[in-house]
Every structure is written in structure tokens, then in C-alpha cells.
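**Reference record**
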Amino acid sequence: MNFFKTVKAAVNIATSATYDIDWTKPEVKEAAIIHWKEVKAAADPALCLASMRLTAEQNAALEKLLEHKGIFPEEPTDELLDGLPKAIPEASLNRIVGSIIDTCLNNHNHTAVAPAAAA
């Protein structure tokens, strides 16, 4: 991992706004799928900081979800999206990618967007 990306991720996490997102809701999962490239770009650099912030149990769950690759996959799976709120505290998810999801939820009708994304 590039040192400067790690520092940038740490600064972004520390200075970012917080969001109140329920990561178990279907529309949040849809937003993550629709904006996966953005989510991955924001979250991958923060993964190297995970071991400092997560419990051993959470780290193990995250590593399993990432298939021990240390980065998020190019395409999210249902297992990954369903498991993230269990592996990473909501406050951390909100700080890292909350702005992406919040913007999507506030600006899109997911019943109209989701079928188009699947096509």
C-alpha cells in the first residue's frame, strides 16, 4: 500500500462528516452496488488501518469477507455486503463511505435505479 494513500485515508477518516446510515437496509445495499467503484476506491486505502481499529473477531470476519486479499473485490457479493455491518462498526462505515451512500440515497429513487444497474 502506498504510504501517501494510507496517510490520506487516515486524514479523510479523521476529518470526515458522520452519517446515520442503517447498513442493513436493502436500499443501502443497492446504493453500495450502484456506486461500488466509488465505495471501493474510498474503502481500500482504509483497510490497512482496520487492524488498529477493529477487534480480533471483527478483523477475522473482515479478512474472511475479503477472502484474505486485503482489498475489496472488483464486484461486491451479497455475502460481502451483508457481512460488512457485522465486521466493521457502523460508525466506521459511515466515516469511510457514508458520504457516497448518503448522496445516493438522497438523490435517487432506488426502485427506478436498481433494475437499470442490473442490466
Observations:
- The chain has one domain: 3-11+23-118.
- Helices lie at 3-15, 26-34, 36-43, 47-53, 56-65, 78-87, 90-107, 110-118.
- Residues 3-11+23-118 form one domain.
- Residues 52 and 59 are 9 Å apart (CA to CA).
